C-alpha cells in the first residue's frame, strides 16, 4: 500500500524517534539544497499576540536583503480574544513598512519557503495549523517566552519542536532539557539569546516609557504588577484572585510614593471571567480602567521592555518574566500558590528571586517598602544571569543578528 506523505503532520504520525529524525533531517537537507539554487526565497513570520512578538528588527534584516521576499502573517489563536489581539497587531504593523496580511484562508504556510512561528500551539492557529505545513516548507521557531513552568511536554515536545529546522532558544540549558523531554532531542535547537530583549542592549528604549508621577519624582518607586492567567489551568501559577483588590488599593493609597504599571497576561481577561473572579469581560475591563484612571497608574498591553528598563521593581507570578526581568537586574517579587510547578530551570531561577505567598499581603507590602531598595539577592541574580542567560557577550551579537546570519549562511553554502 502506498501512502502519500506531503505534510509534516502525516510524517510525524507515521514514524517515531530515530527513523523519523533521520527522515526529517534528510527532508531539511533537501529543502536547503533547493533554496541555495533559488534567486528569491520567501519567508513568513507568524504572529498571534503582540506581547509575544519577537520584534521588528529580525524582519527588517530580511527585508533589507534583496534575496528574500518577506511577509508577516497575523494569525488568530483561537483561545485568545480575537478583536483585541487582531486590532493590536494591525495597529502595530500599519505603523511600519513591514508587509503583512491576515491568515484568512487565502494564504498558507506552503506559499513560503521558510516560516517563522512565534506560537508553539499550532493546533490552535486558525488557517495556519499543524495540517497546513507541507514538507517543502522549512519551519523555524522562536519561543515567545523563557521556559520555567513544569509543563515539559508543552515546552519541549509539541508538534512544532519535532518538525522545526531551527529552534532558536534563550539559554543553552534548554538543549539539555530537550535531550531529556523531546522525542528528537535538541535537533535544530540553537542558543541565540532572546530577541525580544535585544533592545535592552542596543537601543534607548527607556524613552518609550511614560510613567504617571504624582508628587516628587525623586521619592517615587516605579512598580510593575504582572499577574499570570493560569488561575485554574495548568500549571496553576496565577495568584491574581488572592491579591488583585489589595494591590490596586495599595496603589490608590500611596499615590505620592509609588507609580504603577498593571501588565496582565493577555489571557487573564478570559481566565478571570471563566473562573468567576469577574462576572463579565466588561467588569474586568472596568478593573483595568481603574488602574488607568489613577494619577499614578497605567494599564498596558503589548510591548513591555521599556517598562522593564525604567522600573524599580516588579511583582508578578508569570513564569517567563522570572528570567526576562533578570536582564534588567532589578529586584522582583515572585508570588506563590500552595504548590509550585516549575521545571528544573525554573527552580534554579526561583532561588535568586524574592518570594512570597500571593495571599501574604504583609510580605508584599514589606517588599514594596523595603526589599525593593535593599537588594541582598542582586549578586546571586547576576551570577545566574551570567551562567545561563547572557548572550550578547557570549555570541558577540544580538539574537536577531544571529538568527538572520544563521539563515543566510545555511541557504548560501
**Termini, distance in Å?**
38 Å
- SS-derived structural category: alpha/beta
Portion of residues in beta strands equals: 5-15%
| Number of DSSP strand runs | 13
Helical residues, percent: 25-40%
Q: What kind of oligomer do you see? A: single chain
Q: What would CATH call the architecture of the largest domain?
A: 3-Layer(aba) Sandwich
Radius of gyration, CA atoms, in whole angstroms: 22 Å
Any idea how many domains? 2
Report the CATH topology name of the largest domain: Rossmann fold
Order of helices and strands: HHEHEHEEEHEHEHEHEHHEHEHEHEHHHH
Mean pLDDT value: 93
Shape summary: globular
The CATH class of the largest domain is identified as Alpha Beta
Q: Please mark out the parts with pLDDT under 50 across 5 or more consecutive residues, or reply none.
A: none
What does the largest sheet look like? 7 strands, parallel
Across the major sheet, the strand order is 3-2-1-4-5-6-7
Can you tell me about this structure?
There is one protein chain. This protein has 413 residues and is of the alpha/beta class. It folds into 2 domains: 8-194 and 393-410, Rossmann fold (3-Layer(aba) Sandwich); 203-390, 3-Layer(aba) Sandwich (Rossmann fold), CATH 3.40.50.2000. It has 17 helices and 13 strands. The strands form 2 sheets. A 7-stranded parallel β-sheet has the order 3-2-1-4-5-6-7. It has a 6-stranded parallel β-sheet with strand order 10-9-8-11-12-13. Helix 3 links the parallel strand 1 and strand 2. The model has no long low-confidence stretch (mean pLDDT 93).
Amino acid at each position: 500500500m502506498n501512502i502519500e506523505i506531503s505534510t509534516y503532520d502525516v510524517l510525524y504520525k507515521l514514524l517515531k524517534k530515530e527513523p523519523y529524525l533521520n527522515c526529517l533531517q534528510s527532508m531539511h537537507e533537501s529543502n536547503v539544497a533547493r533554496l541555495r539554487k533559488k534567486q528569491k526565497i520567501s519567508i513568513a513570520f507568524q504572529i498571534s499576540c503582540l506581547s509575544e512578538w519577537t520584534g521588528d528588527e529580525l524582519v527588517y534584516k530580511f527585508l533589507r536583503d534583496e534575496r528574500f521576499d518577506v511577509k508577516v502573517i497575523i494569525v488568530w489563536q483561537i483561545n485568545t480574544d480575537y478583536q483585541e489581539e487582531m486590532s493590536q497587531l494591525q495597529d502595530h504593523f500599519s505603523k511600519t513598512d513591514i508587509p503583512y496580511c491576515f491568515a484568512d484562508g487565502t494564504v498558507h504556510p506552503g506559499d513560503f519557503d521558510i516560516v517563522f512561528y512565534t506560537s508553539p500551539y499550532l493546533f490552535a492557529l486558525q488557517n495556519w495549523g499543524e495540517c497546513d505545513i507541507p514538507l517543502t516548507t522549512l519551519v523555524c521557531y522562536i519561543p515567545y517566552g523563557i521556559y520555567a513552568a513544569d509543563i515539559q511536554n508543552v515546552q519541549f515536545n509539541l508538534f512544532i519542536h519535532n518538525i522545526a529546522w531551527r529552534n532558536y532558544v534563550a539559554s543553552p540549558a534548554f538543549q539539555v532539557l530537550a535531550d531529556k523531554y523531546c522525542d528528537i532531542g535538541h535537533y535544530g535547537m540553537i542558543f541565540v539569546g532572546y530577541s525580544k530583549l535585544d533592545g535592552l542592549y542596543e537601543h534607548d528604549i527607556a524613552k518609550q516609557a511614560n510613567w504617571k508621577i504624582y508628587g516628587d519624582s525623586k521619592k517615587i518607586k516605579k512598580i510593575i504588577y504582572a499577574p499570570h492567567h493560569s488561575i485554574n489551568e495548568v500549571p496553576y501559577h496565577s495568584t491574581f484572585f488572592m491579591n488583585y483588590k489589595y494591590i490596586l488599593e495599595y496603589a490608590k493609597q500611596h499615590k505620592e510614593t509609588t507609580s504603577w504599571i498593571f501588565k496582565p497576561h493577555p489571557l487573564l481577561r478570559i481566565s478571570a471571567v471563566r473562573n468567576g473572579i469577574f462576572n463579565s469581560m466588561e467588569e474586568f475591563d472596568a478593573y483595568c480602567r481603574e488602574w488607568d484612571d489613577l494619577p499614578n497608574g497605567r494599564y498596558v498591553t503589548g510591548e513591555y521592555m521599556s517598562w522593564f528598563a525604567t522600573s524599580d521593581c516588579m511583582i508578578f507570578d508569570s513564569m517567563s518574566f522570572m528570567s526576562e526581568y533578570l536582564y534588567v537586574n532589578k529586584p522582583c517579587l515572585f508570588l506563590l500558590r500552595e504548590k509550585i510547578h516549575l521545571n528544573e530551570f525554573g527552580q534554579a531561577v526561583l532561588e535568586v528571586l524574592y518570594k512570597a505567598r500571593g495571599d501574604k499581603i504583609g510580605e508584599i507590602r514589606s517588599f514594596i517598602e523595603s526589599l525593593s531598595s535593599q537588594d541582598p539577592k542582586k549578586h546571586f541574580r547576576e551570577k545566574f544571569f551570567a551562567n545561563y542567560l547572557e548572550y550578547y557577550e557570549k555570541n558577540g551579537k544580538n539574537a536577531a543578528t544571529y538568527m538572520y546570519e544563521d539563515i543566510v549562511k545555511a541557504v548560501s553554502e
